[in-house]
Structures are given as C-alpha cells and as structure tokens.
Write a structure and sequence with these properties.
Elements: E1 16-18, E2 20-25, E3 35-41, E4 54-57, H1 63-73, E5 80-81, E6 90-91, H2 92-99, H3 107-116, H4 120-129, H5 135-143, H6 147-153, H7 161-165, E7 174-177, E8 188-194, E9 197-200, E10 203-206, H8 208-216, E11 224-229, E12 243-246, H9 253-264, E13 271-277, H10 280-283, H11 287-296, E14 301-306, H12 316-322, H13 324-332, E15 336-341, H14 346-361, H15 366-378, E16 382-386
Parallel strand pairs: 12-13, 12-15, 13-14, 15-16
Antiparallel strand pairs: 1-11, 2-3, 3-8, 4-7, 4-11, 5-6, 9-10
Length: 387
Amino acid sequence: MVVATQVVHYTKDNPFITSITESRLLSKPGSEKETRHFCVDLAGSGIEYSVGDSIGIYPVNDQGAVEQLLKMLGATGEEEVELPRMKEKVSLRQALISHLSLANPNPKTLEAFLERATDEKERAELEALLQPEARAETREFLANREFVDLLEEFPSARFEPQEFVGLLRRLMPRLYSVASSPHVHPEEVHLTVAVIRYSSNQRERIGVCSTCLSDRFPLHEKIVPVFVAPSRFGLPEDESVDIIMVGPGTGVAPFRGFLQEREAKRSSGRNWLFFGEQRRESDFLYQEDFEKFLENGTLARLDLAFSRDQAEKIYVQDRMREQGEELWKWIEKGAYFYVCGDAKRMAKDVDTALREIVAEHGKMTAEEAAEYVKVMRREQRYMRDVY
C-alpha cells in the first residue's frame, strides 16, 4: 500500500523551523557598519522562492534585556500570563522572550503609567508629556525609550504581570530581501543584513532580529522560524529586456539574486547596477561577486558611489545623473528600472534624479517627465522595494 505524503505549506502563521548555516561578515575593518551575509537552510521544506521575494524571520528577545525588565517589574518570570491568540498560558519570562516586543512604547503607554504612578513628581512629568501641545516633545521622548526605560524613570508605577503584558505589542517577524536565486541555490536562501547596534538615552540598543541572527541563533541549530513573503518585485518575463538596478547598502541584496538568476538562465537582456556605500575599502558588499559578473558579461555596467572616499559626498543618484544620457537610452528602449533600500531619503532622491534625467534627455517638461515616470510605474517597468 502506498501512503500519500502530506504536503506542508509553510506560512507566516505556520513557519518552517530551520537553521542558519552560514554567517559571514561582509563589511571589512574600518567600516562604521556591521553588515553580514546569512544562509538559511530550506532543505526538506518544499519551500520555493523567487528572486525579489522576502524571507520572514521570527526573532527572540535578548535574554539579558528580559531579565533586566523582570527585575524592574519585581517579578520572578515564572508568573503565568495569558496572551491574545494563544489558547494556553505561558510564563511571563517566555512571553517576554518569544512573544512580545520590548520596544516602541506609545502615548497610551504613558497614560497607563500615569494611572499607576504614585509619586507626584513622576505624575507631573507624565501629565506634561500627555498635553496636546507637547506632541512633538513626546514623540522624541518615546523614540529614545523602551519599556525598561519607563520602568526605570517612573518607578512608582507598579504593574501586575498580566497588566504589564497588556501594554506590549506582539513581537512581529522581520522581512529581509532574498539575496540569491533558486536556480543557483534551490535548498537555501541568502540574506544581506545590517546588524543594528547603537546608543540612545544612555543605554545600549540593538536591532532585535538582526542581532538575533548574528548573536542568538547558533549556527546549524534548528530553532529559526521562517516563511516566504512573495513579492511582485521580480524580473521581467521577457529575458531579453534590459534592467537597471539601484541598490545602495543592503538594498543591493535582491540584485545579487537577480544577477545570479540572469546568469543561470543565460538571459540576453543587459544588466546595469548602481551600488553605493560609505567606503570602497571597507563597505563594497559582494565585491568579488559583482566584479566576476562584470568580467563574465553578466553585468554590462557597474557604477559605484562611495560617499566618504572624497571630500564631496557622492551618492547613487549622482552617478545616475552623470550617466543620464546612456540611462535614458536604456529606458527609452524599454529597460526596467528597480530601486531597493532606504525609503526616507535614498528612494526619494533616486526618484527625483530619474525624473530629471527623463526630462533633460527625453526633452520633456517636468510635468511630462513626471507623467512618463508615472506610466513606467503603472506598467511595472519602474519597481521599488523600499523600507
């Protein structure tokens, strides 16, 4: 008798538990950043991914941060608490480690602290922060604090474990752009991650998931919950179409996957990459890969912008303007234009540069250029993966 094998579909609500098989430092000595390359094992999962997709990872909080929070609460950590969407109770320690975010308090948090604070000086400070005219000051105050800071600054506010848990948001998965092609790496996926470590309000802070990958998920231990987040940010179906990719910093991740895919499939379309970082010697991510792609013809052009290598800062949008005439020729002939990375500044600056290039070299007014770029986006020839 043949027994049918049940196919398991892994999702955000049912992640695949796997391991990190490689953690490699990409940034070199002298860099102001810690950027790492990770390999996530997909063997045996049946998970399929495409270039342009993202991988979702559920992190856990730092044990030391949790113990510090428990001390501030005056709790042992063994107290039972109930969490939304969970059918059973868990210990307070387990809730704080695996289920709840210890960061991002909001004005409602301050209201809860005000309700429980008994010290008059603390109450006055909380009341001042909650005044309508103090919104800007309150935003800045909260941006530099986590829950442990509030417990330290307003110690007269006492919470029962269940009450405190009710103030915290769920610990959400983080999404990272895929930096590999399934045609080259079908049973693993590569990620490019900037590990976040900084100081704020006289306390050391960390990025929860980035340091989880680098510090708290031991290599080859099957404890990492992952899932694929599909995206429309993908290559054109027509492999003869040219593509232009703008990806400074870790924004270059999906384009490494794009290039692996185009090379593996021997796509005839030309590929042009704009990459930028601070310093060539220390921050040229995947330098060997991209130089190899350039040497073997997979990359037709590689334009680099290292902002700190000269007195005047140079960014990817500046390189775009320098190559404006040629870039317009590619776009006019139907090239797809991709941008990945920082949404706050870089993506806006690149968009502005693109419109200026279309206007100047396409001999259009600013309004006509804006409409041309708008049509590119509507036709999905201009795609952005920004965060």
